[in-house]
């Protein structure tokens, strides 16, 4: 009975090892590869002039919206 138990533990160990290696090579590594490529692509684009122009336009729009909110608050204070 001990030998059967040992053989079953060996088979179970191989099955777990194969499952872990399968997960690592076919799930985790491709996901990490895709995330790495996206990060590299983002940092390459981040340095371009086009990205800088978009960033400046977004900052201007945000600043305008903040100014509008401040003006609305001032008008409400004057009315009361």
Short description:
It contains two helices and no strands. With 80 residues, it is an all-alpha fold. The longest helix is centred in the N-terminal third of the chain and has 45 residues, at 2-46.
Assign an overall shape.
rod-shaped
- Name the average pLDDT: 82
Backbone CA Rg: 29 Å
Biggest sheet descriptor: none
List the uncertain runs: none
Strand percentage lies at under 5%
Helix and strand succession? HH
Count of helix runs: 2
Would you report the number of β strands? 0
Helix content range: over 70%
Distance between the termini: 91 Å
Structural class: mainly alpha
3D structure, described in words:
With 80 residues, the chain is mainly alpha-helical. Helices cover 95% and strands 0% of the residues. The protein is built from 2 helices and no strands. The protein is rod-shaped, with a radius of gyration of 29 Å.
Keywords:
mainly alpha, 80 residues, rod-shaped, 0% strand, 2 helices
């Amino acid at each position: 009975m001990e030998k059967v138990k040992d053989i079953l533990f060996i088979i179970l160990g191989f099955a777990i090892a194969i499952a872990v290696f399968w997960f690592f090579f076919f799930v985790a590594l491709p996901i990490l590869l895709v995330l790495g490529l996206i990060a590299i692509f983002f940092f390459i684009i981040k340095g371009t002039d086009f990205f800088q122009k978009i960033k400046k336009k977004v900052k201007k729009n945000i600043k305008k919206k903040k100014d509008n909110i401040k003006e609305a608050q001032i008008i409400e204070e004057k009315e009361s």
